[in-house]
């Protein structure tokens, strides 16, 4: 092989190794929201409740669409609606709250609601199911409230 062929062959390997490494880093960043900030950035990955215009809404979906029955949301607990980017809680009997399901630490989706806390599985952040405030973990900003409407036994997107 000539010197230029060897250089081209090495350059080709380096390009492949660099591309594979960059793809791995991109995948890792995407899994955790891709941001080191403590604010809810990267909102393009999920539709906000206001129909996609950004803002503080949190979730997404069609306004007026039935999200759940009130009986689906346990008192003192809640339910995560991943497709809508929302978590709905019932802190006390008949009181329903909704928040973005996107953790404000690095954008991971919260996993569940237990013992009055909304829990993020990625880094252990915990949010109060009553008001979305931070109760533990690396998150510093509360979960943004989202608009829902309770009519009879139905919870709809507002």
TrEMBL record:
Signal peptide: none annotated. The keyword Ribonucleoprotein does not apply. GO terms for cellular component: membrane. Residues 65-157 form the Rieske domain. Residues 35-69 are annotated as: Disordered. Keywords: 2Fe-2S, Disulfide bond, Iron, Iron-sulfur, Metal-binding. Its cofactor is [2Fe-2S] cluster. Transmembrane segments: none annotated. Residues 51-63 have a biased composition (Gly residues). GO terms for molecular function: 2 iron, 2 sulfur cluster binding; metal ion binding; monooxygenase activity; oxidoreductase activity, acting on paired donors, with incorporation or reduction of molecular oxygen. Iron-sulfur subunit of the cytochrome bc1 complex, an essential component of the respiratory electron transport chain required for ATP synthesis. The bc1 complex catalyzes the oxidation of menaquinol and the reduction of cytochrome c in the respiratory chain. The bc1 complex operates through a Q-cycle mechanism that couples electron transfer to generation of the proton gradient that drives ATP synthesis. PANTHER family: CYTOCHROME B-C1 COMPLEX SUBUNIT RIESKE, MITOCHONDRIAL. This is Cytochrome bc1 complex Rieske iron-sulfur subunit. It comes from Streptomyces agglomeratus.
């Amino acid at each position: 092989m000539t010197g230029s062929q060897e250089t081209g062959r090495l350059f080709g390997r380096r390009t492949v190794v660099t591309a594979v490494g960059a793809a791995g880093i991109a995948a890792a960043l995407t899994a955790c929201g891709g941001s080191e900030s403590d604010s809810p950035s990267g909102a393009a990955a999920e539709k906000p409740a206001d129909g996609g215009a950004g803002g503080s809404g949190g979730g997404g979906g069609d306004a007026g669409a039935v999200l759940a029955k009130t009986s689906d949301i346990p008192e003192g607990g809640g339910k995560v609606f991943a497709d809508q980017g929302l978590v709905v809680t019932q802190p006390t009997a008949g009181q329903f709250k909704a928040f973005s399901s996107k953790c404000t630490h690095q954008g991971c989706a919260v996993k569940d609601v237990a013992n009055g806390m909304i829990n993020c599985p990625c880094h252990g952040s915990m949010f109060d199911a009553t008001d979305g405030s931070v109760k533990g973990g690396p998150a510093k900003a509360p979960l943004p409230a989202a608009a829902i409407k309770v009519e009879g036994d139905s919870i709809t997107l507002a």
